[in-house]
Amino acid sequence: MRTVLMVAEKPSLAQSIAKILSRGNMSSRKGLNGTCSVHEYTGTFAGQPVRFKMTSVCGHVMTLDFLGKYNKWDKVDPAELFSQAPTEKKEANPKLNMVKFLQVEGKGCDYIVLWLDCDKEGENICFEVLDAVLPIMNPTHGGEKTVFRARFSSITDTDICAAMARLGEPDHNEALSVDARQELDLRIGCAFTRFQTKYFQGKYGNLDSSLISFGPCQTPTLGFCVERHDKIQSFKPETYWVLQAKVNADKDRSLLLDWDRVRVFDREIAQMFLNMTKLEKEAQVEATSRKEKAKQRPLALNTVEMLRVASSSLGMGPQHAMQTAERLYTQGYISYPRTETTHYPENFDLKGPLRQQANHPYWADTVKRLLTEGINHPRKGHDAGDHPPITPMRSATEAELGSEAWRLYEYITRHFIATVSYDCKYLQSTISFRIGPEHFTCTGKTVISPGFTEIMPWQSVPLEESLPTCQRGDTFAVSEIKMLEKQTNPPDYLTEAELITLMEKHGIGTDASIPVHINNICQRNYVTVESGRRLKPTNLGIVLVHGYYKIGMDELMEVSFSPLAATGKPLSRCGKCHRFMKYIQAKPSRLHCSHCDETYTLPQNGTIKLYKELRCPLDDFELVLWSSGSRGKSYPLCPYCANHPPFRDMKKGMGCNECTHPTCQHSLSMLGIGQCVECESGVLVLDPTSGPKWKVACNKCNVVAHCFENAYRVRVSADTCSTCEAALLAVDFNKAKSPLPGDETQHTGCVFCDPIFQELVELKHAASCHPMHRGGPGRRQGRGRARGRRPTVKPSARRPKDKMSALAAYFV
DNA sequence: GCAAGGTC
């Protein structure tokens, strides 16, 4: 007979599930670690009779840590922990000998069914179990499937049986996401903790810097406390004014009325309203209403709510409350105390636990009444698929439990009785008054039936005097009307209960770990617990959190500045997503693609325009035209190439006039004419956008040659000058404006050597006309053919030897 | 000596 090994996440679940699947017909024994049990029974699986072995692990089998040698704080740079230090998986709890236990039980098994909790951590534990067990299980028979995953959402007969009937496979990706989470937690936590601790160690006399920890959960937890502290510190009280009126209800009773305007923040305005009402002798009833309202019974109790109430009403910290609850659970007084669920399964036996309380000295009457008159169905809550809500399982007295455990038990029990009790019903009466032109209201509540508030008296509708019976048109004598000056108050420090709510809302920690994180920030001396279990950050806690904000800077900057995506104007299209990028003019000017979340720096100190919607042939980004002004130079550039140079000999920030692309029409290769007359490495490049005041500009220095004014077309020819190797320019003029001899409108020649062009070219500097920069005798006038390649050949090799003075005269 | 997750 083949054997099916089944593994749950914890011993209690293995037992419950085995009980359901075996219909109570199983034999149980303890495993070798003394903690996990094995429940065995027979049944059918995959159409054959089999033996089932249901057991469990105890949470995670493995834990992630750095290799042992990285434990030496003095010898390891924390930065190494952040990225390079290798990690290894170790047994989470060596005492439990979990791997050995799984292997002993798994040996000789043919199939495995994974009953781990149905969340990511559970999925990860599936693979921890498989790593331990698969190598020692029987070999598979002809590719038959042997690994199964049971997916269930509650521990009920129907759900468990349905899961068994529809087994799937474990999800490796979910498990891997937990591996990633573990590694991030470890690296971030350890690296920053060691860095902070070492940084502050021995620096300040009054600071206990033995351990200054940082973590992805504990630090945000502390952050909430400091945030509240900052709100208190920066609070500026405001004065406001309220009108308060009293009317005579009966002979000896007066009624306090609330002003419909609630309050005003301007004294003179308040005074004006007072003046308008203070001489009135009567308050007139304008309307009355009576509405029946209900205060809902509580949802069934889950861990987080229990911790909240333990803190706020019992003054019991979450860690302590959890320990107490666990003891009550192991002693059989309450059900499993770690659950997110606030919904009882349909077939949950609510009367059983209730009957247990029928003779309790404190609430026997209430319970007996519920049992005889019928219980109310609990409200529909949230089913997280883990465990039923926290429920008292057995009656207990204070003497039996001791004061602390009793108080928690009493609360859990009262809460449970409340969930099967009726809502509290009350009558809300409202009378609307008018005194002069101003409106006032008076409300009163009277309880119709207390419902659950009988067992939870602290939830009672506060006793209020009932309102006099009256109707529209009645009048009451005004006994007093006055103006009260009050002030807005700062919030108080965060209560533990509020912190738990914030953590839950922001997904910091889990129901099981929230108490640990809160405990951590207390133990590390980041916060102290004040009266009413309010958490007041210490100087250390405040300084740390403020420091993190400063490092992040965003928090401070965003107050005054808007993010990139919300700034700038659409200019050119991104080559990746083909959406418009925004041009941010503020220095340093850049283009930002909000879709790709990429920023491209642009050359500074000039203007940027779209360049005819032309695109770079390399990356499809739309080109932009950079210009230093009408008398300066301009060139197209590709935003992507300028930030990611496409060729080896290009540098960041280069435009198309320095691009060595062999065929692109905007490149140096196609528009370059010859070496610069002034600088060593520059090349004069035709600016194709400059007509009709054509320019040739050096792509390195600020030399600009103005030429061929009024030509309607200037092109760089493929031919070169036979004397100086510079590229020839082909120039076209209109007939009317042609400066060419005869009636010529076209001419092709060398810009340096051609006598006809001599009159048509003038050298200037882009930025300055200082004589120092003018070309002249003795200065360097190298130039040469640069087309198709950068002038990598030394200028001197191609410099015409006998033309120095001629060129000097020519260009000045 | 460090994190966070699971469970005892």
TrEMBL record:
One of its GO terms (molecular function) is DNA topoisomerase type I (single strand cut, ATP-independent) activity. Residues 771-801 have a biased composition (Basic residues). InterPro entries: Topo_IA, Topo_IA_2, Topo_IA_AS, Topo_IA_cen, Topo_IA_cen_sub1, Topo_IA_cen_sub2, Topo_IA_cen_sub3, Topo_IA_core_domain. Residues 3-153 form the Toprim domain. Residues 171-594 form the Topo IA-type catalytic domain. Pfam families: Topoisom_bac, Toprim, Zn_ribbon_TOP3B. Keywords: DNA-binding, Isomerase, Topoisomerase. GO terms for biological process: DNA recombination; DNA repair; DNA topological change. Residues 771-804 are annotated as: Disordered. Its EC number is 5.6.2.1. It catalyses: ATP-independent breakage of single-stranded DNA, followed by passage and rejoining. It is an enzyme of class 5 (isomerase). The keyword DNA-binding applies. It comes from the Eukaryota. PROSITE patterns: TOPO_IA_1 (PS00396), TOPO_IA_2 (PS52039), TOPRIM (PS50880). GO terms for cellular component: nucleus. Introduces a single-strand break via transesterification at a target site in duplex DNA. Releases the supercoiling and torsional tension of DNA introduced during the DNA replication and transcription by transiently cleaving and rejoining one strand of the DNA duplex. The scissile phosphodiester is attacked by the catalytic tyrosine of the enzyme, resulting in the formation of a DNA-(5'-phosphotyrosyl)-enzyme intermediate and the expulsion of a 3'-OH DNA strand. Belongs to the type IA topoisomerase family. This is DNA topoisomerase. It comes from Acinonyx jubatus (Cheetah). The lineage of its organism: Eukaryota, Metazoa, Chordata, Craniata, Vertebrata. The gene is TOP3B.
